[in-house]
Structures are given as structure tokens and as C-alpha cells.
Amino acid sequence: MIVAGVMSGTSVDGIDVAVVRIEGRPPAIRFRLVHHYAVSYPAALRSAVLAATAAAKASVPDLARLNVRLSRAYADAVIAACAQADIERADLIGCHGQTIYHQGFAARYLGKRLATTWQLGDGSWIAAKTGMPVVSDFRPADMAAGGKGAPLVPFFDFLAYVHSKRQRVVLNIGGIANMTVLPPHATPEQVFAFDTGPGNMVIDACIAALTKGKRNYDAVGKLAARGHADTVIVAELMRGRYFRAKPPKSAGREEFGQEFANALLKRMTHARPEDIVATATAFTVESIAFSIEKFAPSVENPGSADVIASGGGTRNRTLMLLLAERTKRLGYRLKTTDDFGLPSQAKEAVAFAVLAYETWHRRPSNLPSATGATHPAILGKISYV
Questions:
Q1: Minimal CA–CA distance to 84: which of 35, 41, 129?
Q2: Which residues pair with 35 in a beta bridge?
Q3: Helix (H) or strand (E) holding 103
Q4: DSSP-H helix ranges across the chain
Q5: Of 224, 161, 171, 221, which Cα lies nearest the Cα of 196?
Q6: Mean pLDDT in the chain?
């Protein structure tokens, strides 16, 4: 079966499509990446998505229109990916959608305690334009089962990276960073995963503010490399409530978005731009390393465990160098999914292709040990042509 996995993450930088050939069933699913296609959001669309994530700026009509606009963008990306892969169509599309709000914990609303999540991108619109069936809206089924709706990629991490002898932490550094812990010879029940905190999100927000919107990210970490991190501020940020909470837990712009970045910028008003970005970068590195040290099993023999990274953060050389040094002290070697034959930028899109494949075959693909759900759940909704 050929499945097109579609991912647009919390960095809000664009759309990734992975055209994947998938066969078999767990735990012996076989997959091969046929083609990876990436396209940036047009500036106006990116601005609209960012505005939608800020509750005070979002209107109901704009959210409704944005849902359709994003659906058309996803459909166009799948059509382009299939054309580049030289295939007429995929058998199935798995579209994660664009998260505009995620509240993984239960809070009171109108007399009831509830958790919720919202990803824009409607399967019916995508199916109609592409002529392909679509699985979308993956997260609510897990939340309805008592989970946090995230992370969902650990199902794929378990299938792809569990090792008979080596402990592995599979790390994705997107807008938010998340990790999957795979003990040697792990069973699904032994896998656990959670969001570690900010990935690129705080760094990107600082860059956008410091350049007045001319740049949205620190290309290969050049600015951070010229600066000096304020270790006192990093230590204070690490005392935040999110880092004290135990897994399972999930984060988003609600915790580490523009308001968080604005507070950091205000705190460092008189600092050099390179020092501000270096501090934000060090904060991301420390939050990841802290999560590994605190929640993953200790490594007895140095170098006997792996951190396997993916996502946009892997292109930030400064971040990766700092992370390699920090995780080495914990006994891990830092690698990327590229070292295992899967481009780091394509990994999450491939994962949602696999999740869609499982849904199509009426099989659950959440891991309750990762999300906190009370039972396995078949994820997503299917839209037919």
C-alpha cells in the first residue's frame, strides 16, 4: 500500500509529505520512503496560522476559512509529492493537520473537567481535491480514551528503532521537542514518551522579534554560536512548573509560545542579540538533557545508548553540538535518523503515514504507556472520495 503522510508542526514553517510504501502488520510492518516533498507556507498563510494560535487574535470566521485554506494547501502538497514520485496517486493519505490549540490536561469548563485538542485540516476537502481517501484528526480518539493526545509518534518509534541490546531515546526537535524512551528489547508496554519542552519554538520567536520579522529562525545556529548563554536565566527557566511534572505530559504554544518568548526578551532587554539566542538555545538543550537524565533509565556503560534525533532542530549545528556534549555526559551517543536511512525532515510525515495505514486496517496505534490513555484506540477519522 502506498500512503502519503502529511505533517505540519508547531514550528509553523511549512508542509512535509512522505510518500511511503507500507506492508505487513505490527510488529513486522515494513516501510520504505519513496519520496519526501517539502514546501514552505506562503508568508500570509504562516501569519494566519500563527494568529490562530493566539486566542485573542483568532475569530470564528477566520478559523473556519483557515481550515479550508490549509486543507487545500495539504491537498496541493500531496498532489505535487505524488507527481515528483512519479506515481498517479497514493492509496491513502494520512494528514496530521496544523495544531492551533492543545490542552492535554483536564481543566474545568462550564462545570466539567475536560482536555481538548484542535488540528485544522479537513479530510473531506483533501479527499475531494486529491481523489484519495484520507485519515485525519488523529489525536481526539486518544484523548477520549483518557490520554493526552500526544505524543503519537512513539508507535512508529517502537516499530522502527527498538534494539535488542541498546537503550535508545528517539528525539524529535520541532517547535516542541519530544522523546520516546525505548529500553533494550522493549515491549509496547515498556515504551514511554512525552514532550520535553521547547524545541525550536523559543529560539524562532526570539529571532523573529530581534530581526523585526525579517528572519524566522537561526540558520544553522550561527547567531547562537557567537553568543554566550546566561546560565542563571537558563537555571531559573528550568525551575518552571512544566519540568517538575511527571510524564505523560504534552506541551505547545500554550506553554512555550510567544508570551513565554516575550517574557525572556523582556528579562534580557539589555543583552546582545547573540546572547539572547544563545540563552534560548541553551534552554532547549538543557530541557532535553534534563528530561533524559530525570526520566530515562540510567546508562551503566558510557556510549552504550543512543539519542536518535530528527526534526528541524537537527539543522541547527550549535544546538546539536551542545546536545552532543550534554548527552555524552549521560552515556549517550547522539545520532540522527539520517544515520538509519530516514531523512530527519521526513520522519514525522512517515510516522503519520504508518498511523494512517493502521487506522485503515482498523488497528489501534496509540501507546497508552506514552499518552496515558486507559486503552489502545484506533486513531483518526476516514474521509472517502
A1: 35
A2: 19
A3: strand 98-109
A4: 43-52, 60-84, 123-130, 139-144, 154-161, 201-210, 222-225, 231-237, 241-244, 253-256, 258-267, 273-295, 317-328, 347-360, 368-371
A5: 171
A6: 95
User: Residues 106, 34: contact at Cβ < 8 Å?
Assistant: no
Note the residue count of the chain.
385
**CA 169/CA 273 separation, integer angstroms:** 32
pLDDT in tens, 300-342: 888 889 999 999 999 999 999 999 999 999 999 999 999 999 9
163 to 146, 307, 330, 358, 371: CA distances (angstroms)? 29, 13, 19, 22, 22
- Residue whose cell numbers read 520579522: 213
Q: Check the CA dihedral 367-53-295-96 and report its sign.
A: positive
Angle at 219 between CA 283 and CA 157, to 5 degrees: 65
pLDDT of residue 285: 98
- What's the DSSP call for residue 245? S
pLDDT (mean) for 197-220: 95
Least confident span in 136-140, 250-254, 279-283, 346-350 = 250-254
42/53 Cα distance (integer angstroms): 17
Residue given cell 520535553 in the structure block: 196
Query: CB of 178 within 8 A of CB of 10?
Result: no
pLDDT of the residue at 55: 66
Output the DSSP codes for 162-210: --SS-EEEEEEESSEEEEEEE-TT--GGG-EEEEEEESSHHHHHHHHHH
117 contacts 104 by C-beta, under 8 angstroms: yes
Q: For residue 56, what pLDDT band results from cuts at 50, 70 and 90? A: low
Give the CA dihedral 332, 321, 192, 181, nearest 10 degrees.
-30
Say what the pLDDT of residue 166 is.
Answer: 95
Question: Does 20 have pLDDT greater than 80?
Answer: yes
Q: What is the pLDDT of residues 154-167, one digit of tens each?
A: 999 999 999 999 99
Predicted TM-score (pTM) of this structure: 0.93
At 61 the three-state DSSP class reads helix
C-alpha cell of residue 264: 525572556
Q: How far apart are CA 179 and CA 250, in angstroms?
A: 11
